[in-house]
Structure prediction request, 69 residues.
Amino acid sequence: MIIKNCIKCKTCGDVIESTHRHDFKYCSCKRVFVDGGHNYLRRGFTDSQDDYEELSIIEPDEKSTENLG
Ligand SMILES: [Zn+2]
Prediction:
């Protein structure tokens, strides 16, 4: 499961975090964004993934089969 959905922009230094599913956040310089909250990790970048530093915290979810359906 996703504990924290968060990246740091290497250009402007902003740390942005998406806290819910439709919480779409840009950094100040608009080179990178995060989205998806604790449901999925969505990232955007301008040139490459080197535009940001990954700060998310993800824990393996070994009990996910219990929630199928
Ligand atoms: Zn930025």
